Amino acid sequence: DISMIFEQPVTCLNPVLTVGEQIAEVFRVHERCSRKKSKEKTMALMEKVGIATAEKRYFHYPHEFSGGMIQRVMIAMALACRPLLLIADEPTTSLDVTIRSHIVALLKELTQQFDIALLLITHDLDIASSLCTEVAVMYAGLIVEYGSLKEIFVNPGHPYTLSLLKAASGEEDDLIDGYVPKFSDLPKGCRFHPRCPWTQNVCQDFSPHMTTGVRCHFRQGFTRHSM
Predict the structure, then answer these.
(1) Residue % of the chain over a pLDDT of 70
(2) CA 4, 57, 106 angle in degrees (round to 5)?
(3) pLDDT tens across 122-170, in order?
(4) Rounded Cα–Cα distance for residues 125 and 198 (Å)
(5) Which of 90, 164, 181, 214 has its CA at a distance of 20 to 30 angstroms from the CA of residue 61?
């Protein structure tokens, strides 16, 4: 029912087994397919995720695949049993811009085609905007804001969300001051207050509750250009 695509796909594959054999194992274990049937289903799935000449690539080893192709292999393994939920943890890490856009488009197409819910874990806001309809923003282990994609990107309500969106612009002046606290030394009150330009005394003394989708004592209702 649940499958996952990990951040470093190359470390998830066995280097001494062929790629096809590793995908086929999913069918044999979960669907009790024969070796012949699992091979047929694997080659069909490899072609579905954009791996050309699957009849040859089935017998190749992980080191014979590029980073983008390895990620396609992991997507194939994750989708093999048509899960209800697919968890994708930084699925485009270490991929160049062109390959990254292909992987994002592939994930969007296949999850829609197979009617699979997608839970995306990422720091890349562009990818989130391409794949997600709802967004939860986390800081220091807590969700600080939750809402629709439009609410989060157009009218953020938490200072960290606004800072994150501004930092994503790449301008040096928009970088967030300070560092994320260690879990062994979390600040009292709001965990973001040491870095928040709008912090007040109450923020330093009391941890805010999640109210109307925002964990802040003073729900701001920023725009993308707020200062």
Answers:
(1) 94
(2) 40
(3) 998 889 999 999 999 999 999 999 999 999 999 999 999 988 888 877 6
(4) 23
(5) 90
Q: Distances from the Cα of 100 to the Cαs of 93, 127, 171, 179, in angstroms?
A: 8, 9, 22, 28
Could you give the CA distance from residue 11 to residue 21 in angstroms, rounded to a whole number?
16
SS3 label, residue 211: strand
Could you please report the per-residue DSSP string of 150-170? HHHHHS--SHHHHHHHHHTT-
CB atoms near residue 32 (< 10 Å): 9
User: Rounded CA gap, 63 and 14, in Å?
Assistant: 10
Burial of 15 (0-12, 13-18, 19+ CB in 10 A): exposed
Instruction: Give the C-alpha separation, 223 to 207, whole Å.
Output: 24
Contact 20, 58 (CB under 8 A): yes
| Residue 93 structure tokens | 């890490």
The structure's pTM equals 0.85
Secondary structure (3-state) at 186: coil
Q: How far is the C-alpha of 165 from the C-alpha of 175, rounded, in Å?
A: 10
* pLDDT for the residue 172: 57
In 3D space, the residue among 34, 15, 24, 30 whose CA is nearest the CA of residue 58 turns out to be 24
Amino acid at 135: V
